[in-house]
Specification:
With 149 residues, the chain is an alpha+beta fold. It is built from 2 helices and 7 strands, in the order βαββββββα. Helix 1 packs across helix 2. The radius of gyration is 15 Å and the shape is globular.
C-alpha cells in the first residue's frame, strides 16, 4: 500500500521544519499521539534517531518503534518501522510554494509474511482509506500548531 497526502501551511518553511522535527513535544499538538519515548538521539544528525510512539489507531492504543533512515535539513526526513509482519516507510517533506509551505506525508506498507500479504489483498482498500484519514488528521494538527505560533 502506498499513499501520499499534503496540506499547505501559512508559515515559512523553517517554522514547519522545526515543528516536524520537534519529537519531544509533538504529542502536545498531534492529537493521535498519546506518548513518545525517545530511545536513541544522535548528536549531529537525525539519522538513527529512534523513538517509541504510542498513538490511537482504529480506536485502540498501539505502540510502534520508529527510526529515521534518511533526511535533508529543511526538506524531508524518512522513517522506518517493522511490525505485524510489515515494513512501514513514512516520509515527511516540505517545499516552498509561493508564500506557503507545502507539507507532504508519504506512507508505504510492504507485507513481509504470507498471511499479511493475503490479508492486505482482501482488506487493503479499507485500511488505505482509514490510513489516509489518519495522515490528513496528523498534517492538519501540525498545520494548526504551526500557524498558531
Amino acid at each position: 500500500m502506498k499513499l501520499s497526502v499534503f496540506v499547505e501551511i501559512e508559515k515559512p518553511l523553517e517554522d514547519v521544519w522545526r515543528a516536524i522535527v520537534d519529537f519531544k513535544n509533538c504529542s502536545s499538538y498531534i492529537n493521535s499521539i498519546v506518548k513518545l519515548e525517545i530511545i536513541e538521539e544522535p548528536k549531529d544528525t537525525l539519522i538513527g534517531f529512534k523513538w517509541k510512539e504510542t498513538r490511537v489507531m482504529f480506536g485502540k492504543e498501539v505502540i510502534e518503534t520508529m527510526w529515521i533512515t534518511n533526511y535533508k535539513e529543511n526538506e524531508y526526513y524518512q522513517t522506518r518501522a517493522e511490525s505485524h509482519g510489515s515494513v512501514y516507510i513514512s516520509k515527511l517533506s516540505i517545499k516552498r510554494v509561493e508564500n506557503q509551505t507545502k507539507l507532504t506525508m508519504s506512507f508505504s506498507a510492504e507485507a513481509q509474511t504470507f498471511f499479511v500479504k493475503l490479508f492486505s489483498l482482501f482488506m487493503g482498500f479499507l485500511i488505505k482509506g482509514s490510513m489516509k484519514k489518519a495522515l490528513i488528521k496528523d498534517l492538519n494538527d501540525i498545520k494548526t500548531y504551526v500557524e498558531s505560533n
